[in-house]
Write a structure and sequence with these properties.
mainly alpha
């Protein structure tokens, strides 16, 4: 259900980009559509919801296995 929500947001943002009257508005709406697409894809992949965010579960697993942040 959440996947459908983000896909719908992506669709609306794309539509708004196509109807935008300025290049800046188009760019903003296409950027949002891309972010919503990543969010929808991340729901099934189990990855972080936004680019740049940390998947805390993966970090905790790595720390629990004795791995270090700097590879040393």
């Amino acid at each position: 259900m959440e996947h459908d929500y983000w896909l719908r947001r992506m669709s609306v943002a794309s539509m708004m980009a196509r109807k935008a009257t300025t290049a800046e508005a188009r760019l903003i709406h296409y950027d949002l559509a891309g972010r919503y697409s990543v969010r929808a894809a991340g729901i099934y992949a189990g990855g972080p919801p936004w680019p740049g965010q940390v998947n805390r579960a993966a970090v905790e697993r790595a720390q629990g296995s004795g791995a270090t942040r700097h590879g040393g």
